Amino acid sequence: MTSSLLSIELRKLLPYRTFWVILAVYVALLVLILYFSSHVTINGQKAGESFYQFPDLWVKLTYIASYFNLLLGILVIIAVTDEYAFRTIRQQVIDGYTRANVVQAKYSVVLLLGVVCALLVFLLGIIFGNIFSPASNTANMFTDSHYVFFYFIQAVGYMTLAMLFGFLIKKSGLAIIAFLIYAKIVEPIIHYQLPDSVDKYFPMKALSTLTPIPNKELFEMVTGASESLGIWGAAAQSVIYIMLFCLLSYILLRSRDL
Amino acid sequence: MANVLDIQGLSKRYGRVQALDQLSIGVPQGSIYGLLGPNGSGKTTTLGIVLDVINPSGGTFQWFGQTMSKSTKRRIGALLETPNFYPYLSGEQNLRISADIKKVDHAHIQRVLDMVGLSHRKQNKFKGYSLGMKQRLAIASALLGDPEVLVLDEPTNGLDPEGIAEVRQLILDVAAQGKTILLASHLLDEVEKVCTHMAVLRNGKLKAEGPVSSIMSTNDQVFISGGAPLEQLLVLAQQLPFVTEARVQQNQVQLVLQSGTDSSELNSAFFAQGVALGQLTVKKKSLESQFMEIIKAETV
């Protein structure tokens, strides 16, 4: 069922230029930042080769990639709100979709994008690590590569939240703004107001825990330690949020006229 | 014959506006059923509810005697309000999506494109289509999978006169195959020309329902003249029990007969009085004037 829903979604997305432009921007930014990270000069010393050292590379890489989840979110919002703009959501429910199918179809796109982006990050890690880091280093190439899996959950989490905003607001511009404001302003303010013991349960906080800041220990020497769930705890919590966002999207569709 | 669609007490309220008020109708199998009413009378709301995209505030409906489900949806082809397609995809690509959702083989696409005369433009993007072509594509999409019932909301909207004639012929052709068609229109002419049954809506309320011919015949007008002076005809006519209304109009006497009365009864009644009528004309009122009457009734 889900596979046929996905193939229908691909019929809509693959010929859509906006889809490819956003994906291209995602890839280009990721590659550029990755490339230029090694050319940063710190204290007269190029970060250079040490940046691409396995296994630390995986944490750095997924942390960088986490910044571009917003782009993926925007892509998903456009995919959802287009259905309202073209009123195709209405036609598809008339033609045979249930409201659950509508959510499942978009969620299948989210999963596919998550897999594609995680694979891309994984490949970039292997390519950059092998080309630029000292050759002796490849023995522990896959150590810590499970951070790519955490990145996958994070990307899916961002996109599912974006999907919910799309269904909620229906208009692309407003939905994108609301999504960005929530992710980057509202939640950070809430985090700031609340003690760590509480705010670690918030969706953005849990999701961001999945791609920890590289050299976290160093960082916390300056800012003070912050309490968070362990990475596996954050992963479990993120999965719960993902299910919740899907469920809320479905309830929204059920309760409103199309 | 069984009803394809039964609606009982359907209501829809948008805030303070009662868009649909206790609508109960039945669409007989094989009929071309016209839902007639001015803009804002609740036609699209009705169709939206029975097509599962608008939640009713009250009431129920059954398709083929069942509640709406995926399997009943597959037996219905529908176009609601505007044609809804992806502007950046071609007509054919759009129909592939519709076919996939309806689980219809792609081989059917060419057939429905031919039926609506869009084959030559199937490779063009939807956004480049004229309004008429968009409407045809929507009809093509509704025809995909050869559904038992077609639901068409203002199907001739935006078409030129030639296109209107073609679409009406298409509807009649499809109906001739034994399919049921539910059609919403604000054009009386359209309903009169195409439909076998009709319901008239106004402000969300049902004003009249039944076969088009019976709605029309209840108000047939008869014009008589000749055989005797007009004044005498008028007096005689007013004495007849089955004449409800009689008046002189332009050298003729205009009569309204009780429903169920045949005009030959009228003729023989006059003959019994020793008057051989020179002329007797039965004139069915145009649906338009009836429509205005139905709508004007209970305006308050």
From TrEMBL, chain A:
The keyword Nucleus appears for this protein: no
Any matching Pfam family: ABC2_membrane_4
Keywords for the protein's UniProt record, in alphabetical order: Membrane, Transmembrane, Transmembrane helix
Membrane spanning stretches: 20-42, 62-86, 107-128, 148-167, 174-194, 229-253
Listed name of the protein: ABC transporter permease subunit
From TrEMBL, chain B:
Coiled coil: none
Gene3D superfamilies: P-loop containing nucleotide triphosphate hydrolases
Molecular function terms from GO: ATP binding
Transmembrane regions listed in the UniProt entry: none
Ranges for domain ABC transporter: 5-228
Keywords (A to Z) from UniProt: ATP-binding, Nucleotide-binding, Transport
Family matches, as PROSITE patterns: ABC_TRANSPORTER_1 (PS00211), ABC_TRANSPORTER_2 (PS50893)
Family: Belongs to the ABC transporter superfamily.
Protein name as annotated: ABC transporter ATP-binding protein
Taxonomic lineage from the root: Bacteria, Pseudomonadati, Bacteroidota, Cytophagia, Cytophagales
